Structures are given as structure tokens and as C-alpha cells.
Amino acid sequence: NHYLLEAKRQNIALELLESERKYVINLSLILKIKATLQGPDVKRSTKERSFFPNSLRYLVQQHVDLLHALQERVLSWPRQGILGDIFLKLTNDENNFLDYYVAYLRDLPECISLIHVVILKEVEEEIKSDLYILFFHIVQRIPEYLIHLQNVLKFTEQEHPDYYLLLVCVQRLRVFISHYSLLFQCNEDLLIQKR
Q1: What is the CATH number of the domain that holds 2?
Q2: What are phi and psi of 168, to 5 degrees?
Q3: 19, 67, 81, 192: which could form a disulfide with 77 (CB 3.0–4.6 Å)?
């Protein structure tokens, strides 16, 4: 039974790693689109206003680092693999990781309305809906971490060195999500409506 639990934990850790890899690809796609939209074709007047939340660049950097940390940990998974410490550090008050998500959620509605008004004429509808889908992924990422970590916790015995770490992370993410639930909701609604 003990070994089954460990195997299950390792699988969930691998799923988390895979989802992080996809997420980093999505983030870099947004930066690619951003680069094309800031090309010479877009009218000068719109260049000054940003279609993209300012926190994006920082988030990309943070998630690339997270991906490396997860890869290192998960691909050489020891008998008692630990994930909690990585997320503990990430959600720590000294780290601005969650603050940048708040900034992102606050900036997003304005960016969406700008994109809606300006980009309509500049590029095909397709790019716009791609962008909305990518933006949506970012809105949902923190709630996704909560689900992943709750899953790992479910298969972690109380004596396991990861148990307490995960418990604290899950608690922190829950508090964060409920604290900003209106911001999450408002952005999700906006994006669903635009799509």
C-alpha cells in the first residue's frame, strides 16, 4: 500500500511537471503574439497603451525557473519525493509571485477591452481568440496549482516529510484564491464572454 501511494504521488508529480511545461509554452506564445502586434504595422497611437498586462514578462521568468526546479526534482524523484518546499518558497510573502498574479488580474480587463477595440481592425479575429484563450490559462493557473497540490496531498501519508509542507501550500493558495475570488470571477466572465 505504501509503495502504491508513492507511485501515485510520482504520477501526480509528473502530471504537474507536464502541465507546467505546457503552461510555459503558452506564456511564450503570448510573448510571440505580443512581439508581432508591436510590429511596425500597428498604429503609433496604440503602441503607447499596452494590450498586455505588465506582469507578463515577470511571470514568464518565474515560471521558467519553476519549470527547471520541477524538472530537476521530478525527473530524479527519490523514494520520498518532496514538492511542497518548491511551492512554499513560491507562495512565501518575501516572494512576489502571487502579487504578480494579482497585478495581472487587475490589468487584464483594460487590456481585453483595448484588444477588443483596437486589434479588431489590425489583425484577424483568429489571433484575438487565441489571445483570449491564452489569457484565460493564466487566470486559471493558480487554481490549477491548488488542485494539483491537493491531489498530491491526498496520496501523502501524515508521516511523510512532504505532508506538512503541502498542507501549508494548499492553505496559502486557498486563502489567496478566496481573497481575490471576485477578481478571478470578473476576468473569467469577461474572457468567456469575449470568446
Answers
A1: 1.20.900.10
A2: -65, -40
A3: 81
